[in-house]
Amino acid sequence: MKCSRRVFVSRAGALLAGGSAAQWLAGCAAATAYRVTPAGGQLQLDVASFRDLHSTAGIATVQPDGDDVPIFIVRQNETYTALSAVCTHRGCTVEAKTGRFVCPCHGSTYSATGSVLRGPAEHPLRRIPSVLRADGRTLVIEHPRRTAAR
């Protein structure tokens, strides 16, 4: 996953203020982000091929081709949820941490289901319409650009 300009500048300032270079670089390092090409306004994912979703409490990061913002796929037992990675506070891109999401800009923290654990955000992460097909393997997600335009 790319490090946004806002995150880069924020972390660079923290580094200059005495922060650790390792901490700064860790947030901008490439996490596993699965590239997906939208087709017909949808993303179709074979969830079995995502090693991050092999755990019954896994989180995978999906990067649709042509989009700047990733999507998080959260597995809870046999249920899959697609969440926007856009913080509801000021629009920064949140990062997946162990079982939760954290905004690097202002510290908002969200649960694995997207609900707010700690502000300043007041609203949960946006759920993106998705459905698991009857085959139990194919997750169909509405393309976020198409969903946001409604």
Question: What is the straight-line distance between the termini?
Answer: 27 Å
**Fraction of residues in helix:** 10-25%
Largest sheet: spatial strand order: 1-3-4-5-10
Biggest pleated-sheet summary: 5 strands, mixed
The total strand number stands at 12
Which structural class best describes the helix and strand composition? alpha+beta
Number of helices: 3
Describe the structure.
There is one protein chain. The protein has 150 residues and is an alpha+beta fold. It is built from three helices and twelve strands; from the N terminus they run H-H-E-E-E-E-E-E-E-E-E-E-E-E-H. The strands form three sheets. It has a five-stranded mixed β-sheet, with no helix packed on it. Strand 4 and strand 5 form a beta hairpin. Helix 1 packs antiparallel against helix 2. The protein starts with a helix and ends with a helix.
Briefly, what is this?
The protein is an alpha+beta fold. It is 17% helix and 33% strand. Helix 1 packs antiparallel against helix 2.
Key attributes of the depicted protein:
150 residues; five-stranded mixed beta sheet; disordered C terminus; 12 strands; alpha+beta
How are the elements arranged and paired?
Blueprint: H1 5-16, H2 21-28, E1 33-36, E2 42-46, E3 59-64, E4 71-76, E5 79-84, E6 95-97, E7 100-102, E8 109-111, E9 116-118, E10 127-128, E11 130-132, E12 138-142, H3 144-148
Parallel strand pairs: 1-3
Antiparallel strand pairs: 2-12, 3-4, 4-5, 5-10, 6-7, 7-8, 8-9, 11-12
